[in-house]
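Its record is quoted verbatim for completeness.
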Amino acid sequence: MSDSDSEGFFDNDWDECGDLVWNEFDWERYLREQDDLLHRYLAYYERLKDRPDRIDEAAHLMGWDAGQWGTEGENAEEAAAGSEPPTPDEVTAPIEPYTLHKNPVFIATMAIYLSLTRGWERLAADPTKVSQSLAVAMLASLHRGEQHALLGVQALDLGDYAMAVSVFKRALEELNRTLALSEAPKAGRHLTDWRTDAVPRLFDLREIWLRVISECRDELGRRVDGEH
């Protein structure tokens, strides 16, 4: 996700829902689709994990930077096609709501934490590989970091950028604790292997959150300048 991509994180699309009324079946279908979206991002991320630009390229494959595609090259044709009047089928297509599940920061955060937690759970299930005290402490730290980040995304979606900065800073503090736990003294081979895979993912989370914090502060600065 490039810096320019994160501008889209501030759009509030709640008003587009109109008078949408869904039953339980509709919401179950919707949530399954959002789960599929999360796993699609994770599949892209895993495929690109050896590339230094993996978070930007995964965002590109997800279509999150599509707003800039029409500025050059072959993507101009796609942008032109997108400017055509909607077809009758498109006009009558059911409107889907915007929820937190569609937010790119939410998807990337959830997906990367899912990969971290899955790997740690497999390792921690065997007490001969890591101590049970470390197993519990690491799981708790991963959970707290994810929860702080999700609260930050919620603040972001609500337009409370100052709160978003504060909560993402807490997520960064917890991420540092996770990194510290991974450097347990006298770490065995299994912990070392997990850390080798986990550290780039933790730094990717840090990069995503720092970009969001920067965008939030820029937005807050624009608001202050606009008041003068």
